[in-house]
Design a protein that fits this description.
Layout (H helix, E strand, L loop, with lengths): L8 H11 L6 E5 L8 E13 L4 E12 L5 E2 L8 E3 L4 E3 L9 E8 L2 E5 L1 E3 H10 L5 H20 L4
Antiparallel strand pairs: 1-2, 2-3, 3-4, 3-5, 6-9, 7-8
Length: 159
């Protein structure tokens, strides 16, 4: 592509890095599989399908197992329960340290005098990205963490 150019070494390094960039969006570590603890496990996000007018995001991903000693991927099919965020999905508002923001209730109850602030997930994700509050990898890490908590049993099954 750039064969007609005299390319300095620092630019060659950048071009090489671009060419060697993995084609998945992100690969995030996951807790060890309870029946296969000898392997490192991760979730590799392959695609994101976002529909703005419908306020809907669908993530296509795969679970990946790698031999801890060699790093070689193991070809075992693991479940991939649906991972979607839609108009009715909500998230907790977080401060700059990623802690949930909790505020006093207007009408305190006997067992509760405060609660976490909830926001619509789709709009919150857009706001975080558009206002440079978080990068794509950090955003996916945060939402993956919540997804894994809610689907742990399904993710841990063996097909």
């Amino acid at each position: 592509m750039n064969t007609h150019l005299t390319i300095p070494e620092n630019i060659k390094e950048i071009l090489s890095s671009i060419e060697n960039t993995s084609l998945n969006l992100v690969e995030l570590p996951l807790h060890a599989h309870p029946k296969l603890p000898q392997f490192a496990r991760s979730i590799r996000v392959l695609d994101i399908d976002a529909k703005s007018k419908q306020q809907f995001i669908s993530f296509r991903y795969e679970q990946v197992l790698k031999d801890k000693a060699t790093g070689e991927e193991i070809n075992i099919s693991l479940p991939t329960p649906e991972w979607v965020i839609y108009k009715g999905t909500w998230s907790y508002l977080r401060d700059s340290n990623s802690n949930f923001i909790e505020l006093p209730l207007l009408n305190p109850e006997a067992d509760k005098d405060s609660d976490k602030v909830k926001v619509p997930s789709y709009q919150y994700m857009l706001w975080l990205l558009k206002n440079n509050k978080v990068g794509l990898t950090e955003l996916l890490t945060s939402y993956l963490d919540e997804f894994v908590k809610s689907c742990r049993d399904s993710l841990d099954k063996l097909s």
